[in-house]
Amino acid sequence: MADTLSRDEKPDAPAIERSGQQRPAASRNKQEKELKRPRKNENIVGMMGAYLEMRTKQAEAEAADRAKEMEEREREAREKDAAQASDFSIRRCILVLNTMEVTKEEKAKAYAIFIKIERLSYVLVK
């Protein structure tokens, strides 16, 4: 019974017989390591599969977010174009008046009206 390991001894440490000679470690440790290796590989495969699924979902979410942002930008650009088309500021009216073929007297009357309106809006705003 001297050759057997007691329960208190560590299985990793080589067993020492009473004669002082070291004996080889039990083959049980080697068998346990061989059994554990496939499990680790299976865990790695499972972990990599889970990681790939997570990254796929993340990429899909990012693509959806980018698509939403692009739609939002396009909508804002359309709204801005529509707002500029319906913008009838005094400056824009003067620019349009300059492109029209109108007599100098009519232009002078129009400028006087625009200036009055601009002054009135300036006073009302402040």
UniProtKB/TrEMBL annotation:
Domain of life: Eukaryota
Residue ranges of the region described as Disordered: 1-43, 57-83
Coiled coil, from the record: none
Biased composition (Basic and acidic residues): 1-12, 57-82
Signal peptide boundaries: none
TM region positions: none
Annotated protein name in UniProt: No apical meristem-associated C-terminal domain-containing protein
UniProt organism field: Panicum hallii var. hallii
Lineage of the species this protein comes from: Eukaryota, Viridiplantae, Streptophyta, Embryophyta, Tracheophyta
